[in-house]
What does this fold into?
Amino acid sequence: MLGQDVLAALAGEQVTALGRADLDVTDPGAVRAAVAGHDVVVNCAAWTDVDGAETAEAEATAVNGTAVRHLAAACAESGAVLLHVSTDYVLPGDATEPCPEDAPVGPVNAYGRSKLVGEQAVAELLPGSGYVVRTAWLYGEHGPNFVATMLKLAAQRDTLAVVDDQHGQPTWTADLAERLVALGRAALAGTAPAGVYHGTGSGRTTWCGLARAVFELAGLDPQRVGATTSDAFPRPAVRPAFSVLGHDRWAAAGFEPLPQWQQSLAEALKRPAFAELVTAAGARADAGGDSG
It folds into this structure.
């Protein structure tokens, strides 16, 4: 989902795009060969099955941790800049105010622990040329995501119940992709200090708030979305209750934070893949399925 938007943001540049079939990121020799000759490496590869990681932590860590060490070592050897995409899940999620980039880490699940291993490898091996960009609540045109799911359900059900006690920042992959490319260019120019950045949409909401915004922007009745608690949807992996991140460090690189999440969501829903889902949801409403 993110990788395809990074490629779109790099249109016209000389780019090597490697999918899972092209590169085994857990193979250090293959990683070294792939990195050679490149100025910037953007790592969008990850084990993203949060619940699955609870029973396969070693496998998740191999991709999210050990493989990142291979990438960082290869970049250190070749002199390339590494942009590594990480997650809010490395934080404990118990804050009440936006977490700064230097907030203490403390993952509450196996996925978060696996991603923290990757962050630590970048910090250790690339102190001057490694960039960790934490993101959260991603949605985009090119993969399964919450926004698309809400639109699909809007075309199938009269009402929905969505969790309202988890707080975070919806982040459009197109926004993050453009920022990753800009950060890579700034890194090459020597104008962006290495380290941790928080790449999430500005503002904050809950999953329920996001769902209602999706409905409203799609021309549907947001009151079709009811609020519930996390207890109503038990999952194998604990989710952080508070995933709101601070964005102060972007100023050091000469950037503003990413746009407000509502603004980005409105733009995203105009894109073809989302627009088709909006049309389908609207057709149900026009047929009498929308109670608003």
About this structure: The domain at 2-287 is CATH 3.40.50.720 (Rossmann fold). The first strand starts at residue 40 and ends at 43. The mean pLDDT is 96.
